[in-house]
Amino acid sequence: MSTTWIPFIAFILSLGAILVLSRKSITIGIFIGSVILGVLTLPFYEFLQKMLTTLITPEYLLLASAVGLIPVIGILLDDTGLLDLMIKNFKFGRKSLIVFSPAVLGLLLMPGGALFSAPLVDKAGSEHLDDSRKASINVWFRHILHLIYPLATALIIACEVAGLQTYSVIVFLSPFFVISLLLGLIFLLDKVNNEATFEKFENSVNWLEFLKPLSIILLAPIIDFVLKFFFGLKSAATFIGVSMSLILGIMLSKIQFKPLTQVVKKAKPWDFFFLILSIYLYQVFFKSSGIATLLKNINIPAWSLLLVISFIFGFLTGRVSTPLIILIPIYLVQFGHISALELAVMYYSTLLGYIISPVHPCLVFTAEYFKIDTRELIRDLLKVDIVAFIFGILIYFLLITFF
Question: Which residues contact 273 (CB under 8 A, 6 or more apart)?
Fold first, then answer.
């Protein structure tokens, strides 16, 4: 066999490892895939050198640390009851509550997070909706805010791999978010009246209890934005923002040291820390492997990578980060550059495939909570998901005429 094909075979093997192992642990999947690609395409000394250099790069370590701290904030807010207080003092109507609960809780990286918002959606929609519709609402609105939230892990990862500024991509993701929100309201909440919320939420509002957890959630992206745009910081901006949010959370919750250690154990920040470093490893080995030369000879239409293949990968893997880690480097090799608009479209298509995936953990957990079959939930979500995908295509071709 010609040595020319070794990088291609190594690439296929690495993809196989990522796709298979990521179903159990995306961190392990990406790391093993990176090692396979590096060991099979590089001299062993060079492989070790590049691995060590990547693992000690300050910029990479800062971003990895920031992403690792995000789930700690989510668990802290939940374990200390701050999230319950925020929801309890939400006074903007039943329909608004049904959207707000899964959307805000979806921003916080918590294991089994869908199970935290499901009871709120269940209670708020009890008089109007059947179980499959309540389950669809929980899944749909948990994820669409990830289109414009700058600390969404998958978005951070996608922008890092593509070499783009997160906020420039969010600009192009905004119309996709708006259409997703409107379609969710039209297709999923058409039977819900926006009258005053149920009895549990009819007491007087304590604005301090509502704003305390909300300020913890919003502080990180505000600091991140200010430090990036006005001071030119990169990963350090994200790390400082997330750290300040965590410190504020510790202060406002008045949590003691021992409960805080339990929060950290539950959040498993090391998983997210090593995930980011593994992604950087994969990038380094991909660029050094020689696979780029082979991939350039494969003619793949841009629209198929941005729209169709990304949607299919999202559906098959039940992940957003995994397909993007694979597809963005391929796109860069094929076309030399990926614009903020193109990345926004790829991200959106992947997210839509992921939302209706039968191996999507949030979908499975939600179906279990509402005691319905996963296929029933997917069927109920399918209409809004496909219509959103069609609108996404239309928005993309409309935007490329202007940008």
Answer: 64, 65, 67, 68
